[in-house]
Amino acid sequence: MSDAAAEILRHLGGYRFQTSTHARNFSYPQNGLRFRIPSKQGDDDVMIIATQDTFSLTVRRAQKVIADLSGVTAAQLADTFWAAIKGVQI
């Protein structure tokens, strides 16, 4: 796991995040973290990429992008992730 992926996972909540969401199929693209989360509508495919001091977040459900955000700060990452998964407009 890269330093960027470890930092992203730490901001999301680490092991507690993994167990509470049942996240699986982790992969580690350059400067990022990608994983799947099961949902009633099908698996959500989540990709988070770290830039210099912000993050970009993309969530896909059933091959459709439901959130594509950039400029997310570390302090906002967890809340933004949960809002995106729940389908709340951000």
Write a concise keyword list for the protein shown above.
alpha+beta; five-stranded antiparallel β-sheet
Commentary on this structure:
This protein is an alpha+beta fold and 90 residues long. The chain has one domain (3-86). Helix content is 31%, strand content 37%. The chain has helices at residues 3-12, 14-21, 77-86, and strands spanning 24-27, 32-37, 44-50, 55-61, 64-72. The chain has a five-stranded antiparallel β-sheet, covered by helices on one side. The mean pLDDT is 87.
Summarize the structure.
The chain has about 90 residues and is α+β, with helices and mostly antiparallel strands. The chain has helices at about 5-10, 15-20, 75-85; strands at about 25, 30-35, 45-50, 55-60, 65-70. A five-stranded antiparallel beta sheet has the order 1-2-3-4-5, with helices on one face.
Uncertain runs: none
Q: Mean pLDDT, nearest integer?
A: 87
Tell me the structural class: alpha+beta
The number of helical segments is: 3
User: Portion of residues in helices?
Assistant: 25-40%
Extended strand count? 5
Largest sheet: 5 strands, antiparallel
Radius of gyration: 12 Å
